Amino acid sequence: MRDDHAVITTARTKPDSATVAAVDVARAALLEDVPAADVGEHLGHVVEGERVVTHLFACERAGYVGWRWSVTVTRAPRQKVVTVDEVVLIPGDEAIVAPPWVPYRERIKPGDLSPGDLLPVDDDDPRLVPTYLVGDDPLDADDKAQVRQVAKDLGLGRVRTLSLEGRELAAQRWYDGDAGPEAPLAKSAPDSCTTCGFLLRIAGPLSEMFGVCANGDANDDGRVVSFDHGCGAHSEVRLAKKHEPVPLPEPVFDTLTPDEIETL
């Protein structure tokens, strides 16, 4: 047992001397549930509140390096007896724990979908808005059904379209990705896509920043690229003379006959 144990205060409360000193009480309660071989030295205590203290003990159990036994004790007002609230095993700063849970929908990355896979979007996805909005209030189930019917009757084909937020997210993702100006391919390019003859213009609000590459020899063929992107397959690229292939010599016409070869 250590007398110089650490003290951590989590509340603006004067430490209660009885609960702080109840190290033996906490250890005894711990040993009722845990083999003695699994309990190490006293690591300190945490003041949780008024007359509530948690004592920490090292965990010696195999496979639990960096974990700590936590025993919370308390004392009722005007009582001298310290009682035990709970005994739990908690991870310390160096403990190996499972990574934070990430919902399945957020774990999916571009390229993860296989043929036949479905990835539905939520009705309230902020990236999409109804093609026609009914009133200024949020749409209820009946209004959404009406929007779908109106869009279908008008032959629009799309019930929802990109919202301003969805458009900005897409533009930022494209610009920061491999088809933007910071890609290694673009940084070493002789010129930008905006002057390339293979750039196809697109319509809509993103037409001032992006186009589609139509060069079948380029890495970005068929992909959206930013105007300040670039690659070595630019339409106006010309090789310097030192990089041009060496011309072949003039062909020689062989006039020797088989009979002439035998006399040589």
From TrEMBL:
Pfam families: DUF3027. The lineage of its organism: Bacteria, Bacillati, Actinomycetota, Actinomycetes, Propionibacteriales. This is DUF3027 domain-containing protein. It comes from the Bacteria. InterPro entries: DUF3027.
